[in-house]
Design goal:
By secondary structure, this protein is an all-alpha fold. It has 15 helices and no strands. Helices cover about 80% and strands about 0% of the residues. The longest helix is centred in the N-terminal third of the chain and has 38 residues. The relative contact order is 0.13.
Length: about 450
C-alpha cells in the first residue's frame, strides 16, 4: 500500500517543480486578497458585505475564463508533451478568442442585470439601512471592476499556456508584480494615505483594475521579449485554427466551460441560501472563505499540477505509468490538505478578531473556518480526482462529477434547508460540507475505472 501511494524523490521533485510556482503565484494572490479583505473590513461591515456580494459575480466570471482556457489547455499540455509547437499555438489563439467572447457577454449581463443579482444576497435578516448601504457599495465596486476584466482574461490565456509549456515562473512573477501593486494601491486608496483620496471600497476596486493591467503587461513582455516561448513565435501572424481542432476543442473543452459556469453558479446559489440566515452570515462567510482560499492554495495547486503532469504523460505516450502517477499525486494532495487544515483550525480563533465587525460575525466566522478546515482533505481528494479525469479529456464525466453533483445534490439540499427549515447556519453549513464525501466516492470510482487514460493528439 505504501509503495502504491508514495513516490520517490524524483517523483516529488517533478511535481513540486511545477506545483510550487503555482502555489507561490496563487498564494501571494490570495494573501493579498486577504489583506484587501482586512483593509475593506476595517472600513466597516457594510463595505465588507458589499465587496463580498460583488465578488460573487466576479467569481462566476473568473471561473468561466478558467474553464475556457482549461478546455484548450488539455490539448496544449498534450501537444507540448508530443513536441508539437504549432498545435500549442493553435490552442493559444483559441483561448484568446473564446475569452474575448466571455468578457463581452459578462459585461453586458452586469450592466443590465447587475443590481438585481447583487440584491439577491441582501434580503436576509438584518438592518434595512445596512442592506441599502451594502448594495450601493457593491454597485459602485463592480462598475469599476468591469474595466479590468478584459486584461484579466488575456493574461490568463497567456499564463495558462505558459504553465502548460513548462514556463510556470513567468505567470508566477506576473502575479507577484500585480498583487504588489494591488496591495500598495489598496493601502493608499482605501484609507487615503500620503495625500491620496480616501475612497474606501471604490479604492479597492481601482487598485484591482490597475493590478490587472500590470499583470497583463508583465506576462506579455516576458513572453514576447528575451527568451521567447516557442508557441508565441508566429502566433499573431493569423488567427487560423484548424476547424478539425476547433471542433475537438469545442467537444472536449466547451463542457469544461459549461462545467465551470454551472459549478460557480451553483456555489453562488448555495451562498445565497446561506445569506437567508442573515446579513451577519454574509459577512462571516466572506471572512471564512477569504482565509480558506489562502490556506487551501497548497492542495489546490497540487491539483492543477496533476492535470498538467498527467496530460503531458498522456501526450508523450507514457500510458502505462499514468494511473500510478495519478494515485500518488492524489495521495500527496490529501496529505498536504491535512497539514494546512490543522493550521487553519489553529488560527480560526485569531483571524475574526482582526475585523472591525460585530461579535456575532466573529463567532460565526470562527465556526465556519473550523468546519472548512475539517473538510479540506475531502476537498483535496475531490479536486485531485477532477483534474485527473480532465487530463484525459473525459469532460462529460467531469461535468457529471462536478456541476451535476452541485445542482442535483448540493443546491437542492441548501434550498430546502434554507427555505423550509429553521436549522441554524452552523449545522446547515456542516451538512453542506459533508455532502462532498459522496463526491469523493464518485471521484474514486471514475479514476479507478481508467477510461480517462487517452492520448488526444496522436
Amino acid at each position: 500500500m505504501k509503495s502504491r501511494l508514495i513516490g520517490d524523490r524524483a517523483f516529488y521533485s517533478r511535481a513540486l517543480r511545477l506545483a510550487v510556482p503555482i502555489m507561490i503565484q496563487n498564494g501571494i494572490t490570495n494573501f493579498v486578497n486577504m489583506l484587501d479583505n482586512l483593509m475593506v473590513g476595517a472600513v466597516g461591515t457594510a463595505a465588507m458585505t458589499g465587496v463580498a456580494v460583488a465578488n460573487q459575480l466576479v467569481f462566476i466570471f473568473n471561473l468561466c475564463i478558467y474553464g475556457a482556457i482549461s478546455g484548450a489547455g488539455i490539448f496544449a499540455a498534450q501537444f507540448y508533451g508530443k513536441g508539437d509547437n504549432e498545435g500549442v499555438r493553435y490552442t493559444f489563439r483559441f483561448k484568446l478568442m473564446i475569452c474575448a467572447v466571455i468578457t463581452v457577454v459578462f459585461g453586458i449581463i452586469v450592466l443590465f442585470k447587475g443590481d438585481f443579482l447583487l440584491g439577491l444576497y441582501l434580503r436576509g435578516e438584518g438592518s434595512a439601512e445596512l442592506a441599502k448601504e451594502s448594495l450601493d457599495i457593491a454597485h459602485n465596486y463592480i462598475s469599476i471592476i468591469l474595466i479590468g476584466i478584459f486584461p484579466y482574461a488575456i493574461a490568463q490565456s497567456y499564463g495558462g499556456t505558459l504553465r502548460e509549456t513548462d514556463r510556470p515562473k513567468v505567470p508566477m512573477y506576473a502575479g507577484i508584480a500585480a498583487v504588489t501593486v494591488n496591495l500598495i494601491l489598496n493601502y493608499l486608496l482605501i484609507f487615503g494615505h500620503f495625500g491620496f483620496p480616501c475612497l474606501g471600497a471604490e479604492g479597492a476596486a481601482i487598485a484591482t483594475v490597475i493590478s490587472r493591467f500590470v499583470e497583463l503587461i508583465y506576462v506579455v513582455l516576458r513572453t514576447h521579449i528575451g527568451k521567447k516561448s516557442t508557441f508565441i513565435i508566429g502566433a499573431f501572424r493569423s488567427l487560423k485554427v484548424p476547424i478539425v481542432l476547433v471542433r475537438s476543442m469545442f467537444i472536449k473543452g466547451m463542457p469544461l466551460l459549461v462545467n465551470e459556469l454551472l459549478w460557480s453558479m451553483g456555489i453562488v446559489f448555495i451562498n445565497q441560501c446561506y445569506s437567508v440566515r442573515g446579513l451577519a452570515v454574509v459577512a462571516a462567510d466572506n471572512i471564512a472563505m477569504t482565509f480558506f482560499n489562502v490556506f487551501s492554495v497548497v492542495f489546490m495547486s497540487v491539483g492543477v499540477a496533476i492535470g498538467i503532469i498527467v496530460g503531458q504523460m498522456l501526450g508523450s505516450g507514457e500510458l502505462e505509468k499514468v494511473m500510478d502517477t495519478a494515485v500518488k499525486l492524489r495521495a500527496f494532495s490529501v496529505f498536504t490538505a491535512v497539514i494546512v487544515g490543522l493550521l487553519f483550525a489553529a488560527f480560526s480563533g485569531l483571524i475574526p478578531n482582526m475585523y472591525n465587525t460585530t461579535d456575532e460575525v466573529r463567532r460565526l466566522a470562527r465556526w465556519l473556518m473550523i468546519l472548512c478546515a475539517a473538510g479540506m482533505p475531502i476537498d483535496a481528494f475531490a479536486h485531485a480526482s477532477y483534474f485527473t479525469l480532465r487530463s484525459g479529456g473525459k469532460v462529460m464525466i467531469t461535468l457529471i462529477f462536478d456541476s451535476f453533483f452541485v445542482w442535483l445534490v448540493s443546491v437542492p439540499f441548501a434550498f430546502v434547508i434554507s427555505r423550509y427549515t429553521s436549522l441554524p447556519i452552523i449545522p446547515f453549513f456542516a451538512l453542506s460540507q459533508a455532502l462532498n464525501i459522496l463526491k469523493c466516492l464518485l471521484g474514486y470510482f471514475y479514476v479507478k475505472k481508467g477510461s480517462w487514460i487517452k492520448n488526444l493528439v496522436r
